[in-house]
Amino acid sequence: MQIVTVIKIYAFSGIRLLLLGISFLFLSGCKLPQTNERLHLAVASNMQYAIAELTKEFEKTSGIECEVSIGASGQLYAQILEGAPYDVFISADMTYPQAVQKAGMAAGSPKIYAYGKIVIWTGTEGVNPTFDGLKNGKIAHVAVANPRLAPYGMAALQTLKFHDVYRDIETKLVYGENISQTHQFIASGAAEVGITAKSIVLSPEIKGKGIYTNIDESTYDPIAQGMVIITDTNPDYSKEIRFINFLTSDPAKMILHRYGYGIHE
To answer: What is the C-alpha radius of gyration for the chain, rounded to an integer number of angstroms?
Structure first.
C-alpha cells in the first residue's frame, strides 16, 4: 500500500522547510532500516554439510537468516530441555523430536524430512572397508558414534551385530560424541576405519577422499530423521513453519538427495 501526500507550500522558514521535507520523505514510503529476521536451528551432525547448502537456498528465497548449532541429537535434546533458545530442532531420528513433544516443548507434531544412510569408510591406504575387513588384525580401531546420543551410532551397532562381527571387534571400537567427531577419527587416522554417515562422505569437502562401502539398509532400523518447532513465548511461528515447509519442498529434496539421503514422499 502506498501513501500519497499532497502538501501546499506558501512561505516557510528554513527550519520549517527542512522539517517538512523530512516528513514528506517519510510519508512517501522511505523505509527505515529493519532488523533482519533470524532462525536458530539445532541440527544433528550428520547434516553439517547438507544444512549449509539448505540454509543458503532458504535464505536466498525467504530473506530469513539462519544460525546453526551442530551436535549429537541427544545433546541437542538435552539443551532444549534446559531452555536453549532454538527455534527448530532438526534431528537424526524421530525419537528425540517426539520426546520434545512429550515434554510439552514442541509447537506441533514432528515430521520426517529424510532417511539417513550409513557406510563403512576409510582414509587409510590398504584397509578393506567391509565387515570381514574390520576383523583384520592390522586394524586397531574402528570408529562409530556413541549409540546413547547419536542415532547413527545405534544404527552402526545394529548392523555390526546383524553381520555377526560385533563381538570380534568390540575391543576395537572407539566412540565419537556424534557422527561428525566419528568421521574426524577416521579422517585423521586415529581410527583406521569406521561407520559414518553417507551424507558426510558425499559432501564436497570429503567426496573423492578415501573409499567407502554402502551398507544394506535392511540391516539396521530406518534412520527416519525428524524436525520439530520448539515452543516460544512468542506465538508467531510463521518463520519456523516456512522453514519446515522448505525442507519438504522439491529444491530441498534435490539437495538432500545429492547428499545420499532417502527422501520421504
So the answer is: 25
How far apart are the C-alpha atoms of 167 and 160, rounded to whole Å? 9
CA dihedral 155→160→164→169, nearest 10 degrees, is: -150
pLDDT for residue 21 is more than 70: no
**Could you tell me the three cell numbers for 234?**
512468542
Question: SS3 for 175?
Answer: strand
Give me the residues paired with residue 173 across strands.
142
Residue 225 sits at φ, ψ, to 5 deg, of -95, 125
Give bridge partners of residue 119 from the DSSP assignment: 196, 214
Q: What is the DSSP letter of 79?
A: H
Q: Which residue has the cell 528425540?
A: 96
Whole-angstrom distance, CA of residue 211 vs CA of residue 215 = 13
Q: Measure the CA–CA gap between 96 and 120, rounded to whole angstroms.
A: 25
Whether the Cβ atoms of residue 121 and residue 196 lie closer than 8 Å to each other: yes
pLDDT above 70 as % of the chain = 86
Least Cα distance to 179 among 239, 223, 245, 210 occurs for: 223
* H or E stretch at 116: strand 111-116
C-alpha to C-alpha distance for 115 and 92, rounded to whole angstroms? 9
Q: What is the mean pLDDT of residues 243-258?
A: 96
Between CA 152 and CA 156, with CA 153 as vertex, the angle to 5 degrees is 90
Which pLDDT score, from 0 to 100, does residue 19 have?
Answer: 39
Q: What one-character-per-residue DSSP string does 195-238 give?
A: EEEHHHHTSTTTTTSSEEEE--GGGS--EEEEEEEBP-SS---H
DSSP state at residue 29: T
The number of CA neighbours under 13 Å toward the Cβ of 13 is 2
Amino acid occupying residue 104: G
